[in-house]
C-alpha cells in the first residue's frame, strides 16, 4: 500500500480483467468529497431501466469504513440518471466487483461509453451500534411526532 498520508486512508483496489486500461476512481479537484468512478462497459440505460454498471474493480475497504456510492448531480439534473439505492453501501468485507446501480428517470435513452464517469464514491467511517434495551424511553418535546408534525413546508 502507498503511504496514505495524514488525511488519507489506504484502500486496496484490484483491477479485474475487463478493467484493463481504465483509470482508477479519482478526485476531480483537491476539495472533492467523492471520487468519480468510470463505467467499464458500453451500455444504454433506457427510460425507467435499472442496470448495475460494471466498474472493472474490486475493493478491500479497511474495517471501520464503508464506501457510499452517490449520484453525480449533473447527470441527475440533465438526464435524470441517478441511483435507486442512493447512497449505495459498499461493505468492508465485500470482495466482488463494484457495480453502480443506475436508474434512468429521464425520458430519453442514456448511452454510457466505457470510461464515462457515472457516479462518485465517498469513503466514510462506520460507527457500529450496540443495543441497550429498556422498558421506557425518556420524554422529549417532540415525543412521537413526526412526518410533518411541526408543520408544512412553508417557512416558519
Ligand atoms: O451500489 C452498490 C451496492 C452494493 N454493492 C455491493 C457491495 C455491497 O457490500 C454488497 C451488498 O450490498 P447491500 O448490503 O446494499 O445489498 P443487500 O441487498 O442488503 O444484499 P446482501 O444480502 O448481499 O447484503 O453489494 C455494489 O457493488 N454496488
From TrEMBL:
Cofactor(s) named in the record: Mg(2+)
The enzyme's E.C. designation: 3.6.1.23
One of the protein's GO biological processes: dUMP biosynthetic process
UniProt keyword Plastid present: no
Substrates-to-products reaction catalysed: dUTP + H2O = dUMP + diphosphate + H(+)
Listed pathway(s): Pyrimidine metabolism; dUMP biosynthesis; dUMP from dCTP (dUTP route): step 2/2
Listed GO MF terms: dUTP diphosphatase activity; magnesium ion binding
Binding site for substrate: 72-74, 85, 89-91
UniProt xrefs under SUPFAM superfamilies: dUTPase-like
Domain dUTPase-like: 24-151
Keywords from the named record: Hydrolase, Magnesium, Metal-binding, Nucleotide metabolism
Enzyme class: hydrolase
NCBIfam families reported for this sequence: dut, PRK00601.1
Protein family (similarity comment): Belongs to the dUTPase family.
Function of the protein: This enzyme is involved in nucleotide metabolism: it produces dUMP, the immediate precursor of thymidine nucleotides and it decreases the intracellular concentration of dUTP so that uracil cannot be incorporated into DNA.
Protein name: Deoxyuridine 5'-triphosphate nucleotidohydrolase
High-level lineage: Bacteria, Pseudomonadati, Pseudomonadota, Alphaproteobacteria, Sphingomonadales
